[in-house]
Amino acid sequence: MTIDTPRKGLSTFDLKMIGIILMFIDHIHQMFVPFGAPDWLDWFGRPVATLFFFVSVVGFSHTHSKKKYMSRLYISMVLMTFFTFILEKLIGYDQVVLMNNIFRDLFIGTLMMFAIDLFVDGKHTSNLKKILAGIGLFLLPILLSLLVPLLMSSPMIVENRLAFLAISALVPMLLLAENNVMVLLIPLLYLARNNRRIQCLMIALVAAVYFFLGSTQWMMVFAIVPILLYNGQKGKGMKYFFYIFYPAHIAILYLLSAFLFAH
């Protein structure tokens, strides 16, 4: 029996932990802005989405069941939407708005990766239905985004927040994603999953766009450092840790901020 010896560099577990720590610091800034939290705390969060996008590409590429992987993210996306809505309603803390739902970004990304697989399989087997299904599935979150202005302009939907909440919770619209069009980086990273240098070049190019737009999101470029150090190993298992930690730490920080503000 052979035992895999750890390689030098960072494992998938390490990348997740780096992302979680940076995300936590970023959310401290988000929740404590009413108390004058310094803007530089927000800088720590700029590489986070990119790290999680990269990890999702790795996870989707190696999972035993891509449909189960997607199902977990979809259920988490829906639950997170209702969770933040209920939390805001119960606490009534208007100083902080909860728009956090990385699960939406990751689900849309996996949907597009699944669409790429479907398209490639269709090309290899000359199956027109699969080719068309792949194209349709890839475009779906983009096309569904066209519903956003229609929903926002509908008096019936605007007046009934629960109706908008239900639609936004269940329907994977790209424009409602926390990182918006930056989510398209996920399928790009997936296409280049066998070439780390090209992946890092893509990240650098997207960062350059944000730099010229004057957005601090250009700091996502620093995600390249741990990604280049990735050794291809899974590391310690933490399959469900993030699914629990993500909503839990947001709730704790939000409740603490609301409590301190009230007192």
TrEMBL record:
Regions crossing the membrane: 17-37, 43-61, 73-90, 102-120, 132-152, 164-191, 203-228, 240-262
Keywords per UniProt: Membrane, Transmembrane, Transmembrane helix
Residue ranges the record marks as coiled coil: none
InterPro entries: TraX
Highest taxon listed in the record's lineage: Bacteria
Protein name, per record: TraX protein
